[in-house]
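so my prof wants the structure for this chain in the tokens format not the other one, which i didnt know existed until like an hour ago. anyway here's the sequence
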Amino acid sequence: MQVVTLRVPIEVHEALKTLAFATESSVNEIALRALSTFLAEEGHREAVDGFSKRVREQYRVALDKLADL
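here's what i got, hopefully its the right format
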């Protein structure tokens, strides 16, 4: 495991503490689950979007020619 310092607004910290207490978990467990879920869902989407954008830029000339067919 790697240690990461994360600065969050007070409201977010309070919500994390409340959820951790209610679920008998640690703030670390709640934050780790939230980050993992985000990365699994949004991270994948953003990676695909970024890859798609780079490919479109790299092959723009060829794609423009194909569009005219």
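also thought this was worth mentioning. Residues 10-67 form one domain.
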